[in-house]
Amino acid sequence: MTATLDLWPIGNCQVSALVDRAGRFVWGCTPRVDGDPAFCSLLDDKPPAGEDAYGFWEIDIDQPAKVSQRYKRNTPILVTRHEDVHGNAIEVTDFCPRFHRTGRMYRPVAFVRIVRPVAGSPRIRVRLRPAVDWGKARPETTRGSNHIRYLLDDSVMRLSTTAPVGWIEDERLFRVERPLHFFLGPDESFSQDIPAALENMLDRTTEEWRHWVRGLATPPEWQEAVIRSAITLKLCQHEETGAIVAALTTSIPEHAGSQRNWDYRYCWVRDAYYTVQALNRLGALDVLEGYLEYLRNIVDNATGGHIQPLYGVGGEATLIERE
């Protein structure tokens, strides 16, 4: 396939994913933005839905005819509507949970997808095919009554779902007659009622992002575009340390045939300055405060006062290049 950068980012300032125009997760790293990509088909030349392809998560409707996408207002929560040739339709809501809980920000290494039937009797197929070792292989899996475990290199991810687990494993078509909930997160038993818990996460994540946006000093001109840009820049911050990555993708050439394909999932000190400057003009002081704390730790640990061009989001100075 020909890769496209016409992508929709979702995230929670711990992990993120890039969703293509077909509603597929095509890029996303765990357990943080500079980790091994569980979703890496963005860099692959095989068709995303091919039988031998992996590194993506697709929820597709049978006999697709039309796909439309939008963000929930003032959030990075993506809603994708799939319609088939007969007018049957579903909506898929994608987000990463992020909200205050017990006095702290809850931002797990997790992705949530909620499928709702909105017209007719739609049939869907779910293909969840994460990758390990930068797309070299598919992980081993184990299965429970309501979950599938994916044994990644650095961690184990568990899919907890209200959809039939066997049908997910077999990637078979099935009819959607009620909302279906998917939580791909830490390898922990989901002790709560899945639909109620994920709907609550959706509501609280929506309110958290809208509360952040209400604190911005946005100009009256181009307000919608400025807010969307601010949210996207905010997703580039690793809130745990305050680091700001240059981009949520990796090693994408600046143009066709270019050798300029630096890995921008790290904190490039110069690039981060421009992000902080832009958000500071809008009054997003939380980003500035977090980044200054990150920088002070970088300076304290600098050898002989030498500051590198880039660091890991945890402040790591030694970064190994690979092809």
Brief summary of the model shown:
It is built from five helices and 21 strands. It is an alpha+beta fold. It has two domains: 8-214; 223-311, no CATH class.
Describe this entry's structure for a reader:
The protein has 323 residues and is an alpha+beta fold. The protein folds into 2 domains: 8-214; 223-311, no CATH class. 21% of the residues lie in helices and 31% in strands. The chain is built from 5 helices and 21 strands. The protein has helices at 165-170, 194-214, 223-234, 269-281, 285-301, and strands spanning 8-11, 16-19, 25-30, 36-39, 56-61, 64-71, 78-84, 89-95, 99-101, 104-106, 111-119, 123-129, 140-143, 147-151, 156-161, 174-175, 180-186, 237-238, 243-244, 267-268, 310-311. The strands form 6 sheets. Strands 6-7-8-11-17-15-14-13 form an 8-stranded antiparallel sheet, covered by helices on one side. Strands 1-2-3-4 form a 4-stranded antiparallel sheet, with no helix packed on it. A hairpin with a 6-residue loop joins strand 6 and strand 7. Helix 4 runs antiparallel to helix 5 (285-301). The model has no long low-confidence stretch (mean pLDDT 93).
